[in-house]
Amino acid sequence: MGRSGTPPAMIEAVDVAKSFTLRRRAGRGPRRVRTTLSAVDGVSFTVGRGEFVGYLGPNGAGKSTTIKMLTGILTPSSGTLRVCGMDPSRERTALARRIGVVFGQRTTLWWDLPLRDSLTLIRRLYRVEASAHRRRLAELTALLELEPFLDTPVRQLSLGQRMRGDLAAALLHGPELLVLDEPTIGLDVVSKATVRGFLERLNAERGTTILLTTHDLGDIERLCRRVLIVDHGRLAFDGDLARLRQAVAADRMLVVELARPGPPVELDGIEVVRTEGPRQWLRLPRAANAAAVVAGLAERYEISDIALREADIEEVLAGLYRGDHAYTPTPP
Amino acid sequence: MYALLAWTWTRAAAQYPVSMLLLSLATAVVGALDAVGIMLLFAHTPRIAGFTAAEVLFLYGTSALAFGISDILLGGAERLGQHVREGTLDALLVRPVSPLVQIATEDFSPRRFGKLLPAALVLGLALPRLDAPWTAGRVAMVPLMVACGTVIFAGLWVLAASLQFVLVDSHGATKSLTYGGAFLTQYPLTLFARDFVRGVTFAVPLAFVNWQPSLYVLDRPDPLGLPDAARFAAPAVAAVVCAVAAVAWRTGLRHYRSTGS
């Protein structure tokens, strides 16, 4: 288990892969053909103590499969994986005491029990000392505002309340690592803000390492100092947000308002992606000199207004998912 | 840990006390009807396959008791397929307690004890009526065979559950292993074809739940002509069944594929 000397990284993944064998009916006969589906295809990364990492990727990219391997639910087909210095699939039960896991899509609480009973049961399952449990429960109750619904059966909770309950349940045993699979999915603006604020404090004040998957870009921009992007089962990016914008060399957008409506403007190196009356959207490659382009336009057209927009993170990700930009991850 | 989880579920069930009571009662009545059926059978014929009413009731009682106890302890394991299908097994796997314990205790309710009552009654009724040459060994064999039978059935529950990792919708098929086994052992095996008896002796070792030990208690010859040692093999067989079940369970877990997202 724990090795002596320097504390090992929280997560160490080396060439981790997971493939599933599918049996499909071939033609009309009873014969079946085996095909291999590679969900995660050789992913390597390291997450250190105290990091806050976003694990992103389009649907079906292998995010959940990775999370399930990290938590010991699935056994990797190949590669080596260490979480808290342990092999998750072989030492699943021991690892469970040191990590907290939250699935946004489904609860880990007992459906028919009041939240308070679920949390008491969790204390027994994890063998948490009564005094430590009381202290943490009081703290979590205050931070997550659980008091009003502690005695309500879980099935009657709203999604936002349930998620806060799930977060409390995942943290009652004081895990070093918290793994969240889409924790803000389906939540309203207020609930999202509560959850995000809570995670931020947890990471900053307690030093809990957090790894989360999400499709919510607000989560990423507000929380994640580091981003891992997986696509088609492979790691497509590893770095911080600023580097992500830079690395994919996202195009900027020049919004030009002409004096009067006209055909799309023509200029070397730019492309008009949209026109709306006198307003036109021009895609500006990263390498292009914005000042020169503006000057060139002003020479040929009569312009009443102009604005330059940095690509937002959503466009950067969309570009990356589409494979617009080739990017080879380099070790940080 | 098992007791703790079971107690929690019992409290949850106690939220609906009337339903709990009626279900316990219904379970007991259904169990008792089985025994009544056997009695009715003997109203028409003094012997079935060479066995008297008391002897058949003895077989029924020991089997039903062993099955009932194993059902209380591990019967819930047959829900595994449902958890695999719905992906809810994931949530059980991230807790530091065996998912088998978590599933077996799920929905634990005192009504499961309803089955034990008629089984114990039938056994209590049959024992004094047996025409057996009671020795200390034979008396000791009765609780031992119930214990071993319980362990064998428990192993079968786990084995049946393990199959559901692979055959997700095999709920019905795996039931034949457990409930089928329970039904089979309630009657003298001489009632069935010889090849079939061989099958349940060597393949799925149901014959050791109560048949082989009963041959000893009732001092009867083995129709298959197995050596006398077979009559005392129940503990060894129970151990083997458990070992096989444990391996199957681990293999199943390793091959668990979870669901999308």
Would you mind describing this structure in some detail?
Chain B: InterPro entries: ABC-2_transporter-like (IPR010390). Chain B: This is ABC transporter permease. Chain B: The chain crosses the membrane at residues 21-42, 48-69, 142-168, 229-249. Chain B: Keywords: Membrane, Transmembrane, Transmembrane helix. The complex is a heterodimer of chains A (332) and B (261). With 332 residues, chain A is an alpha/beta fold. Chain A contains ten helices and 13 strands. Chain A has helices at 63-70, 92-96, 115-125, 130-144, 159-171, 189-206, 217-223, 241-247, 290-300, 313-322; strands spanning 11-25, 32-47, 52-56, 78-83, 99-103, 177-181, 209-213, 226-231, 234-239, 252-258, 271-276, 279-284, 303-309. Chain A is globular and about 75 Å long. Chain A starts with 10 loop residues before the first strand and ends in a 10-residue tail after the last helix. Chain B has 261 residues and is mostly helical. Chain B has one domain (2-255). Chain B is globular and about 55 Å long. The A-B interface holds A 20, 59-60, 64-65, 68, 71-75, 89, 92-94, 96-97, 99, 101, 103, 105-108, 110, 112-113, 117, 121, 124-126 and B 1, 4-5, 8, 11-12, 15, 87-91, 93-98, 254-258, 260-261.
